[in-house]
User: What shape does this take?
Amino acid sequence: MNFISPKIVNGIKFLLVGNNIWVYFPETGRVRRLTSRAKKQKMMGSDFTYEDMEFYNLKEKFLPSDLKEDKNYYYLKLIPKSNSNLSYDKLTLKIDKETFIPLKIDFYKNGNNSPYKTLLQQNIKIVDDIATPMKTIILDNETGSKSSFEIDTINYNIKIEPGTFNPSNLQEN
Amino acid sequence: MNYLFALIMVFNIGGYIEYSGLNWKTENNFPYTCYEKLNINISENYSKSFIKANFGYMNYDGKTRYDLVNYIPPVFHVPGFSIPYTLTSEPFLRNGYVGLKWNIFYISLGKQQMGWGTGYAYNPTNLFQYKTIMDMNEELDGVNSVKLKINFPFDLSLETVMLPGAIIDSTSFAGKIKGYFPLLDFSTGFAYYIQTHLDSLTLNPVNDRYKSILADFSTNIFNFNIYGEGLFNLNKKAPVAVIGCGYTGTDNSFLLNFEYLYNGYGAESNYNIADWLDFLSGYELSLGKHELIFNVEKSYNNEYVKFNLTTLVNPIDKTGLILPGVNINPNDNSTIVLTPFIPYGKDDPSNGGTEYTNFPIGWQFRIKVNF
Assistant: This one.
């Protein structure tokens, strides 16, 4: 992930692979490893954590339960797998039946009954036959702040060279 | 003006304007030195090639003429001995290089950052970048070099660097293999290079050629980041190494860092005038053989306000420098930094002075607005 704005963070890059996070600082040309704990921390002061950016493949980290449905949506509860080492106790999802996109995810932690954070996925577009939420909003229900993540353009099925996600590549433009 | 517009249209252009002021005790008063810096960054990618540059102008005002003799212990002061140093307003090119990518190969030529080493305060393996005590900039100047890097698909990379001199005898070479593994970053390499220091008798700069073995690592143990880097100079038979440990609190607002430097080139005590001048010139990482650095940082309001306390300690002569600081981001593009510096300890003229008691008490502030 390459930050381009605000200007104060322009050029800073992050690479997240499994539990490893590396950051590239353009001022020094140096790549630094962050502690695995950094995954649970806010990304560049936003309401997203680095961990939240990994939730594109939920079945790797969670076990499903309590599937319910109505005319337009599935409702699902997800419990973290014992080895997933996540910050959350539980997730509840509201999934669009047509696209299978979770339109709303509530994140619970510390045994609380009210969600700690809520993620909303909006502006669903079909790109290369894949339903894609172009806007993601995360609400911090404790502080009332929110951050949004918007996709301008996205390409699927592109060829990725071996070694692309080598941290050494962060140093190159 | 048309050229400026053309530049803006063609390149990805940004940068910052910075104002910095410094008061530090010199010659029994507190003169004021300040600068205004215009720094322009340009970068552009063209499929397999790119360019990048940081350049601008630095304008100094206030006291711009110093005598470095004031920063060495009085025991070395003799009538008529003076080391004049002038802060000159001038344009600068901090980085300016071109790069080409081809498959797993990457070559870049020009003035560029080296970025070697895992240390935060000290980087002994970053052999080619110096910083003098009179340099008020935050950044290090790039190094005029040719870098060739091969990024292997299995998380290993080979990096070689050449710093061309006027003749082959003044050319430096270095190379290293770096691996990024799930729990460990590690690199090892070799350097055949020129390093400058001051002759202890004539005090003239001398370029010596050395061969050194280099290594660094960084890993996570529980929630601590353990890192280290070092070199072993095969000619001097001396190591220079850093080991450090960092801890980040759960909410990212609390940071703690500790670093220890063993400088095999440094002196235990009895510093001589060349030791002092090497240190002030940035040719040596430290004056003493052993250095400790502690840093505590606490931020509030999503990192918009940050307090930090850095302490440098020479455990042998028992002197140090305390740097309490505050960093404020009034908005997304601006930074205000205030850093007082407070030396402590007792001077020891019989041993050629102590490392930090001659450092002037003072403070520096910066206001930086990015565009």
